[in-house]
Amino acid sequence: MSAYFTEQNSANVVNERMAPDANPRLQHVMGALVSHLHAFIKEVQLRPEEWESAIRFLTETGKMCNEERQEFILLSDCLGLSMLVDAIHHRRPTGATENTVFGPFFVAGAPEKNMGDCISLDKKGELCLYEGQVKELNGQPIANARIHAWSDNDEGFYDVQQPEAQPKWNNRGVFTTGADGRYQFLGIKPVSYPIPDDGPVGKLLQQLGRHPYRPAHMHFMVEAPGYEKVITHTFVKGDSYLESDTVFGVKQSLIVEFEEIEHEQATWRSAFDFVLV
Amino acid sequence: MSAYFTEQNSANVVNERMAPDANPRLQHVMGALVSHLHAFIKEVQLRPEEWESAIRFLTETGKMCNEERQEFILLSDCLGLSMLVDAIHHRRPTGATENTVFGPFFVAGAPEKNMGDCISLDKKGELCLYEGQVKELNGQPIANARIHAWSDNDEGFYDVQQPEAQPKWNNRGVFTTGADGRYQFLGIKPVSYPIPDDGPVGKLLQQLGRHPYRPAHMHFMVEAPGYEKVITHTFVKGDSYLESDTVFGVKQSLIVEFEEIEHEQATWRSAFDFVLV
Does the domain at residues A81-276 carry the CATH identifier 2.60.40.1220? Predict the structure, then answer.
């Protein structure tokens, strides 16, 4: 064992300090983290003034966090780390509905609705008829599936971001399927919006020449007894940010055609089936 | 170009988002950081609940930072990242005095002293005669070298940590060499002490089965016109934390014999030459 730190043996010296009886999983995770961070510093020959910038950046990111704002999650999202953890833990067979990021705007306890109801309470924006089926990989419909749906309003804000300007539970609802597994409801055609970009993460995106936008999407969480829960969005086909979602949430299979229809209330229709494992 | 994120191409998709006209050094550093973080997550198959713990840990670390406390620097120190950046940027030929971490307790403006003066103002602790020479690699003495020295008190605290209990500038002084390059002063034989361990970093050390102690050391910063500045410590040979300094600051060449002597004031003597490049 080499007790003293040198540039060559740096990560080993740090990792050998962990006590043999420390939690094995913690040792594995921290050991790999230390090895990769040391390899990163060596690869770029990180300069003292860059190290100081990193300390300042992390400190400012911490200071930005409060009950309504989680700047470290934004950072993780914008570096693709959140999507990677999600991808690793939700590998599914071809044909099953893919996951994407949960996002910070889900609120538990949204009102239970009947099929055909409208989740837009202020009726602002263009209405869309969302419909489809919850089913198994073999096509069998799934009864008693609970579908949570939520979206921004026509200005790109969720109700919780505008508690004064929007009615509570605007653009949120929970639907339960019957024997045929089918669902149908009205909501607005969502619009693209920027993530909060007035903090350190927004500044970083700017320095990297990246925009802060997410393409328009409707959030879904679908759960049924005996099936793996799906947390996903459907994205509006044709949105100009589909290929540059700032949090990397888009998957090909989640892009959905929004077609213009003639309907007493809706001007759009979006069909999507949820396939559960 | 693959626009959509997948587990396989994750880091590439993130890095391809950087604008071609973004600062090239920033692109290089962020590209490498993203690649290593993605490789880390894949290597350990980081679990969603572990990702949540990491977000909480970073947030708490940020909340702990204030004007007197920099918890992210402590984190960097305890993972060996600070020493690695220092090592990379202070490679010196054999025989030259090695650098080590600066530490958070240096204060600019300490009193100028004459050779032979004592920097311990409260005379607590065991006095030691520090002496030696500032010289070039070829042995030539360096005149007009400024030697900044600072240490903790006999209870392990720097004056700035105890503004009420210690006189201002206790255990701090600046000395300027004459033509012979020699220096001599009195200070206490320093003692080992724990880094502040009542925050998230202290908790992490505990979970890893690591103690928070630094071996006893006297801080030095030596500068002379035309030479590279040296920021270093001398460590007390025989200290029980030499092989487990929690910030990895110890280098073999910086461990110094403290020998017992008979002297009107001092009971110890520590000889060390500073060799500048």
Answer: no
